[in-house]
Design a protein that fits this description.
This protein is mainly beta. Helices cover 13% and strands 39% of the residues.
Length: 740
């Protein structure tokens, strides 16, 4: 650029080339042309950057392997401009692991950018706070040589699933909209979208970015070299530095950026192998295909969808498939004009999502998504229950469960705010902002509402005004839901400490220390608090003074702890599930094992969802999409309903709500199911696409309220159903087939 400046000065001072004066206007044009040329040269600079991923510090020898990988990068690609780690920096997300990771990263002179993965936040005692404090922000962007790198956070607290939070998608679109026309974007995050099923709103993400110049997306999670393409964007899944399922460890990719495109290199340090891949264009090719327009209707209990893919050129579809509400992907016939028709047996009312994938004559794979609503209509065209009557929309995802107390609806949100609505009018009455995400479900008593926040505090608000009555500083993030009993608040924290607080004053009465994070809400019976932690132990603690009564080991490893689903007691027994899909029943006084339910090898039993008890029958759900019941005395399975037989719909953290006969539970597929426990069947269902449902539904008269990770609370008018019998033993007789 110095040469350009010297020529500018010479031309301006002399104002002549040869013997003729240079007109002022011509000089200005010439000056602009030179500037444009300089910008073009700047944009065409060749550079290299590297993607590493899934470093898993905390796994045996992962730190040594990361150091070897960084050394190899400096040796093999000495001009590397920067490194991007696409998540799972650590194994458990502890402060020690995060600190170790950063100390290793600081040993290299190459700048390193990081995004969180599920392992960095799922078991972390600080939620996402430790990552932000020790590593850096969970969202960031920077421009380098006419490329905009945008680093996103798809991790979810206490979950292995992925999600694009609405607030983050808004930031992403703003960043893409503000790019100059000559600039391209590279997006980096952890969970692979569109192929794994572990990201609930990945199709909406794909619809967003297809409108912009995004040629490359970098992801992790899969521990393997994979590439796939949609809408002209290349998705690159990286190998792992710590361990890989196929390649071996210490695998990474380098990307050489030049005017011709982005050239990836696969490098496996263990085998000393370096291979190049096909070039990725810097500019995503424009598409001739536009939105999907469609209409949908119900008839005889089934659905009919008619649609058309908009196009500005002849549609040359070689093959096409569709997926309805994250079910099974099926073949689709598309006419030359882009029209198609789909029959959906038993289509539920509600909000649906249809995605269509098709390959054109140039072997380009296109993806189009349409979100739409349907209702069951009577002869006059009026919606019939079950139907969605109202939606409370929040700015961020919801993992907390709503609680209704009289006319008040309380809910925590991942934007860190705690809100109270008038459930009748829908008016927001008050909100209080905490310092981090709220996934704790509140407890209400004596005019007070108590909830935990990931900022490390337990808050007590006046339920009517929202005034802060007191707040208690815990040791780490409070992801657990509080229990209120006998004028006391009992709640665990990320450090593994169970706090006993006075409900009225917030005074600390006592603390009990487990070895790792407490997330579950304890059960209370006979003066004892019963709970598990992420330390592979289950505890009984004296509620009066916090003294340990007994503790028993649960499973083979802490990752299979009984730590998520709230336990339940019969008065003499305590029953809980663990993450190895087993159910355990212990003597409440002694901790002695009374029975153990072990699922068949092909079966996934309850694991994340809590129990409800009716008579002697325990009801829960499984991630294989089944509502199951067990005899509380023997542990024998006595009830089993598959909520979606045609394709499994996992029932995860959403604990069932029971009204005496019907169970209400949400799924990761974005459905609310009502299951009849007298006649084993799905009585009705409503689609709430897209979005995971991790929260427990709440009943309010003839309405059901349920929250989703899309930041919505749906109010659903339930259809009239046969009420529960007055005879409390009727249900047990129905299930067991016995007579009165």
């Amino acid at each position: 650029m110095r040469g350009y400046s010297e020529r500018f000065r010479t031309a301006w001072r002399g104002r002549r080339f040869g013997s003729r004066p240079l007109p002022r206007l011509l000089f200005v044009v010439f000056l602009l042309a030179l500037c444009s040329g300089a910008e073009a040269l700047h944009a065409q600079t060749t550079f290299t950057f590297v993607q590493i991923t899934d470093t898993h510090i905390g796994v045996s020898e992962a730190d040594r392997k990361l150091r070897q990988t960084l050394t190899d990068i400096q040796k093999t690609f000495p001009d590397t401009a920067f490194i991007i780690n696409t998540g799972d920096l650590t194994e458990m997300g502890t402060r020690d692991e995060l600190t170790t990771y950063m100390s290793i990263i600081r040993e290299t002179t190459i700048p390193v950018y990081n995004v969180p993965g599920n392992h960095d936040v799922r078991w972390s005692e600080t939620g996402k706070g430790g990552f932000r404090e020790i590593v850096g922000p969970t969202y960031q962007q920077f421009d380098y040589e006419n490329l905009r790198f945008i680093l996103l956070d798809t991790s979810m607290l206490c979950e292995h699933h992925g999600h694009f939070d609405q607030m983050q998608l808004e930031r992403l679109e703003t960043a893409l909209q503000s790019m100059p026309t000559s600039m391209s974007a590279v997006l980096c995050f952890h969970h692979p979208p569109l192929i794994s099923g572990n990201v609930d709103n990945d199709f909406d993400f794909a619809e967003l970015i297809r409108r912009y110049n995004v040629p490359l997306v970098l992801v992790g999670h899969g521990h393997n070299f994979t590439r796939y393409h949609y809408n002209g964007t290349t998705y690159v899944l990286g190998g792992s530095t710590s361990y890989a399922y196929v390649l071996g460890d210490r695998a990474y990719r380098a990307f050489q950026v030049s005017p011709d495109g982005i050239l990836p290199y696969k490098r496996v340090v263990k085998t000393d192998r370096l291979t190049s891949e096909s070039m990725i264009p810097r500019t995503r090719a424009p598409s001739y295909y536009g939105e999907i327009t469609l209409s949908a209707s119900h008839k005889d209990g089934n659905g009919r969808i008619r649609g058309r893919i908009a196009t500005t050129a002849p549609l040359r579809v070689k093959s096409a498939t569709y997926q309805f509400d994250r079910g099974r992907r099926l073949p689709l016939e598309v006419s030359p004009s882009g029209k198609f028709e789909i029959l959906v047996p038993g289509m539920a009312p509600g909000y649906h999502q249809l995605n269509v994938m098709f390959v054109d004559d140039k072997k380009t794979t296109h993806l189009r998504v349409a979100n739409f609503r349907t209702d069951l209509l009577d002869k006059d065209g009026r919606p019939q229950p079950p139907t969605i009557r109202r939606i409370f929309t929040l700015p961020s995802g919801i993992q907390s469960s709503p609680v209704v107390d009289g006319r008040l609806l309380f809910i925590g949100c991942n934007d860190g705010a705690f809100r109270a609505f008038d459930v009748v009018s829908g008016e927001l009455l008050w909100q209080q902002q905490t310092g981090a995400e709220i996934i704790s479900t509140p407890a209400v008593s004596e005019g007070r509402v108590v909830v935990g926040s990931n900022d490390g505090y337990v808050y007590c608000f006046d339920k009517t005004t929202g005034g802060v009555l007191w707040k208690h500083r815990a040791q780490k993030a409070v992801m657990a839901s509080p229990l209120i009993a006998e004028g006391k608040v009992f709640v665990g924290d990320g450090e593994g400490i169970l706090h006993a607080l006075d409900l009225r004053s917030g005074q600390l009465l006592w603390q009990f220390r487990a070895q790792k994070m407490i997330k579950m809400r304890p059960a209370y019976a006979g003066g004892s608090l019963l709970f598990g932690a992420w330390d592979n132990a289950f505890y009984s603690v004296n509620a009066k003074d916090g003294q340990l009564r007994w503790a028993v080991p649960v499973s083979s490893t802490s990752q299979f702890s009984a730590a998520t689903a709230h336990p339940i007691t019969t008065g003499t027994r305590v029953i809980f599930t663990s993450h190895d899909y087993k159910i355990r029943c212990l003597d409440q006084k002694t901790g002695a094992h009374l029975w153990l339910y072990e699922p068949e090898p092909s079966e996934l039993g309850p694991s994340y969802s809590a129990f409800v008890l009716s008579g002697n029958t325990l009801f829960s759900t499984s991630i294989s999409g089944r509502v199951v019941g067990f005899d509380a005395l023997s542990g024998k399975k006595v009830f089993d309903v598959n909520v979606r037989p045609e394709y499994p719909d996992a029932l995860f953290d959403s604990a069932p709500t029971f009204d005496g006969r019907y169970l209400y539970v949400g799924s990761t597929g974005g459905y609310l199911y009502c299951v009849d426990t007298h006649v084993p069947r799905v009585a009705w269902k409503v689609a709430l696409q897209p979005g995971f449902i991790f929260s427990q539904p709440v009943l309010w008269g003839d309405r059901v309220l349920v929250a989703t990770t899309e930041g919505k609370i749906f109010e659903i008018l339930a259809p009239p159903l046969e009420p529960a019998p007055t005879d409390p033993l009727h249900q047990i007789r129905q299930i067991r087939g016995t007579k009165k």
